[in-house]
Amino acid sequence: MTQAGRPWAVGTVGAAPRLLGERPSERESLAAYEAAGGYATGRLSGRALIDRVETIGLRGRGGAAFPAGVKLRSVADRPGPRYTVANGEEGEPASIKDRWLLRMRPHLVLDGLLLATHAVDAAGAIVYLSDAEAEASVARALDELRIPSSVVRIVRVAPGYVAGEESAAVRAIDGGPAKPTDKPPRPFEAGVGGASTLVSNVETLANVPSIAAGAGAGTMLATLSGAVAAPGLYELPLGLALEEALDAAGGLTGPPRGFLMGGFFAGVLAPRALALPLDPDALRAEGSGLGCGAVVALGDNCPVAAAAAVMAYFARENAQQCGPCIRGTAAMAGVLDRLARGEADEAGLERLRGWSVSLRGRGACGTLDGAANLAGSLLREFGPLVDEHRTMPCTRCAEQLDDDPGGGTRYALEY
Amino acid sequence: MIVRVEAAKCDGYGTCAAHFPELFQLDEWGYAYIEGDGAVAPGDEDRARRAILDCPVHAIGELAA
Hints:
The complex is a heterodimer. Chain A is an alpha/beta fold.
């Protein structure tokens, strides 16, 4: 049972929309983008732009919050040829922001990609995505710009949780499967065709034009879903408290039992999350994460069942490459499923606690870390609730699991 | 010398741990991992090389310094 429901709400808190644009209800044309100052000449470019991105402290919006300026510089400093990749393969099931940007503001993303391509002096650029509508929109935008595919080409892959990981993107662009590889090398060392490659999330790139124009980059896109009155896409000041962000989405529809953070990647948080700022470092310090900026309010869904469902999703959607991930996600999903059915024992929970620590860093990509985050955060944030589940079956859990046999589909957004 | 286990390649043969159990641990499913940064003391480099060369799936790599 996927959360159905296009159209999703689109809204802004505070300052004028920078990433959503003035008219978020329609696809932005080249003329409209240029009229608003897009593709202008005389903006910061090259090394000066990289310096500014670094000074402003722009962080990657794909999930890892890596400093964008450092990434640009790492590629620019490597011998050529170099490539750039706009990564729009949004694997997180609870996020819609990257597809929205590619569909509705393709020129904002392409402007950022071209600025980055020039800044690192790349030989070519690739827009990497899985969404058909996004592909059509970007293709049309490249047509409008008369940019040939020898300069910017589109690579479309089948959607998948791991397909948006940077090494999976490189592998798919080179004709392989969209599955991650062990690091090092990272793409900046050896990416597309072995060349140094900047793989940058499309929202990260969408911030570059305003930085090049001398403005700031103080807002972020958040996908807010679950038990909120108006689920959808919101542009928020970075660091806004989650409660205020949810108010922008019409507020919660009932008392929250918890939240899924960072899409599926950063685990679950108890209602205390309402007071926490949407900031990657602050959330990391709380044992959670901002990830791609997606938050699911669990409403009256039981956090134990939610964790069981998302772990089942990891067990199913992992790349099936790394032994510890294949075995570890399956084992953790087994314990959580038993817990949700009131059948877990103390030994099983102890093993779960152990795995949540020992499996961290054991996979080629972050999927196993996400699974460890999920298990660890459930045990940490919901200790008494977990204990209750051990001694008596939870009717709410049983309903949820029977309702969502696919695991995690309840929290996946159709867009 | 710094070595690592490539998680996407390891199939759990355990050869590395047989050659060099102080460096390579096996988890409960038999997959190898290294506790720490994978640095090998100069006197142990021959054993580490043997682990690299004997892995049937070439899952042990030496990282460039």
